[in-house]
Amino acid sequence: MEIDLEKIREMAAQRREENAHFKLSLKTIPTRQIDEMVGQLNNEISDAIDCTACGNCCKQLEPPVDEQEQERLASLKKLDVTSFKEKFIGEEAGTQIQFLKCQPCIFLQANRCGIYEHRPASCADYPHLYQPNFKYRWKSIMANYALCPIVFNVVEQLKQKLNYTKTTE
Ligand code: SF4
Ligand code: SF4
Questions:
Q1: 3-state secondary structure of 54
Q2: Residue 158 to residue 38: CA distance in whole angstroms
Q3: For position 102, what pLDDT does the model report?
Q4: pLDDT score recorded for residue 167
Q5: Which of the four, 20, 107, 111, 119, has the lowest number of CB atoms within 10 Å?
Q6: Which atom of ligand 2 is nearest to the CA of 116?
Q7: How far, in Å, CA of 38 to CA of 16, rounded?
């Protein structure tokens, strides 16, 4: 199990070609079978990794937040919604998806979420490995593979379980 963030970042860059090939190899395996394997690996690996020793997602990502969440977060920050939006909300060009614009997150306190019970849905769902259709979400899986030890180890152990033969390194 690899949990060193710097090593994971390096290995993710080195394994780009291998992972593109691995993605192609998943084509012939039923989606449901892969999702079940990923779900099981996610349970095992999430239990073995201490997120409070990492906190990387809360330092590197900017989670989407809907209007209701923005109101809740503004109140937790003791700001009116307009001021909160001006300071901390961004909008993605093209999609108009609004997100928490701060790296690291303003609610992160010593690697822990300071508003854990009230965190946005996207944060609660991260790293999104329970979502179905793993093999069709490859782009976002690979973005998280490079920064989240849970995703990195799930993908690497999935390769082992499927007896995937490495093509590089
Ligand atoms: S979800 Fe992943 S990136 Fe976030 S703290 Fe846990 S291991 Fe680190
Ligand atoms: S709201 Fe909490 S869980 Fe979400 S990014 Fe900020 S610190 Fe992390």
A1: coil
A2: 7
A3: 93
A4: 60
A5: 20
A6: 2
A7: 20
* Beta carbon of 5 within 6 Å of any ligand 1 atom: no
CB 120 near ligand 1, within 6 Å: no
Which atom of ligand 2 sits closest to the CA of residue 61? Answer: 5
pLDDT digits 0-9 by tens, 16-62: 999 999 999 999 999 999 999 999 999 999 999 999 999 999 999 99
User: What CA–CA distance (Å, rounded) separates 35 from 41?
Assistant: 10
Q: pLDDT tens for residues 93-145?
A: 999 999 999 999 999 999 999 999 999 999 999 999 999 999 999 999 999 99
Distance 108 CA to ligand 1 centre (A): 13
From the CB of 152, is ligand 1 less than 6 Å away? no
Task: Give the residues surrounding ligand 2 with Cβ less than 6 Å away.
Answer: 58, 63, 105, 107-108, 113, 115, 119-120, 123
> Which atom of ligand 2 sits closest to the CA of residue 55?
8
Token output for 30? 């039923």
117: left (phi over 0), alpha (psi -120 to 50) or beta: alpha
Residue 90, strand partner residues: 99
Which position has the token pair 């394997």?
Answer: 37
